[in-house]
């Protein structure tokens, strides 16, 4: 592959993280750590066969922590993900809800930058090109990928590959509640 375009990121980024508790529990901390690929002593909420993987995370491959530059971008991305999970789960009834906490991470790292133009990395359905690209980024020892949100016009996202590049900073007050209606997910709180 050709030389990777890079960008230095040194700002706060956002994440909507699934939580059934009122505060970030040790299990949730473990899930965040698992997304960064570090080994944890406790099991995370991500099952071993979690499905098709993520945009830059192959099934059964190293974890990726996905962040958005603002809450609206996170919401657009997580609405799509929640609907896909509910649709793929046998017997998910209409009215099924997911509760998410708004987390803030401090990011400091060098990321491959694919945020401009339309590429196969921004395909809304297939992640095959993104998985191959992620392997190339990891081989180049970069901290992850900076890319355009596929779900929100003008949104930017990060796929963080290594733990030192993103540090959990704080939880924003309140929760985001999503509800599945049988065909899509929407925010109800």
**Rg of Cα set:** 16 Å
Which residue ranges are poorly predicted, with pLDDT under 50 across at least 5 consecutive positions?
A: 36-51
Sequence of secondary-structure elements: EEHEHEEHEEEE
Please give the order of strands in the largest beta sheet: 1-5-6-7-3
Strand percentage, roughly? 25-35%
What is the residue-averaged pLDDT?
Answer: 81
Number of domains: 1
Number of strands: 9
Work out the helicity level.
10-25%
Instruction: Decide which structural class fits the backbone.
Output: alpha+beta
* Terminal CA distance: 45 Å
Sheet having the most strands: 5 strands, mixed
Number of helices: 3
The coarse silhouette is: globular
Can you offer a commentary on this structure?
The protein has one domain. The chain is built from 3 helices and 9 strands, in the order ββαβαββαββββ. The strands form 2 sheets. A 5-stranded mixed sheet has the order 1-5-6-7-3. It has a 4-stranded antiparallel sheet with strand order 2-4-8-9. The protein starts with 5 loop residues before the first strand and ends with a strand. It has 189 residues and is of the alpha+beta class.
Give me the secondary-structure topology.
Layout (H helix, E strand, L loop, with lengths): L5 E4 L2 E7 L7 H10 L29 E4 L2 H18 L8 E11 L1 E6 L13 H12 L4 E5 L7 E5 L5 E15 L4 E3 L2
Parallel strand pairs: 5-6
Antiparallel strand pairs: 1-5, 2-4, 3-7, 4-8, 6-7, 8-9
């Amino acid at each position: 592959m050709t030389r990777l375009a890079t960008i230095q990121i040194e700002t706060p980024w956002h994440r909507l993280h699934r939580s059934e508790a009122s505060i970030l529990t040790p299990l949730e901390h473990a899930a965040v750590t698992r997304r960064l690929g570090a080994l944890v002593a406790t099991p995370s909420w991500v099952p071993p066969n979690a499905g098709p993987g993520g945009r830059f995370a192959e099934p059964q491959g190293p974890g990726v922590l996905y962040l958005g530059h603002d809450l609206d971008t996170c919401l657009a991305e997580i609405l799509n993900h929640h609907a896909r999970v509910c649709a793929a789960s046998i017997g998910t009834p209409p009215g099924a809800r997911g509760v998410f906490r708004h987390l803030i991470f401090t990011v400091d790292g060098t990321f491959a930058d694919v945020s401009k133009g339309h590429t196969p990395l921004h395909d809304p359905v297939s992640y095959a090109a993104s998985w191959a690209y992620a392997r190339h980024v990891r081989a180049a020892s970069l901290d992850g990928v900076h890319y355009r949100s596929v779900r929100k016009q003008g949104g930017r996202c990060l796929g963080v590959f290594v733990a030192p590049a993103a540090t959990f900073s704080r939880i924003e007050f309140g929760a985001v509640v999503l509800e599945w209606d049988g065909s899509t997910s929407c925010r109800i709180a």
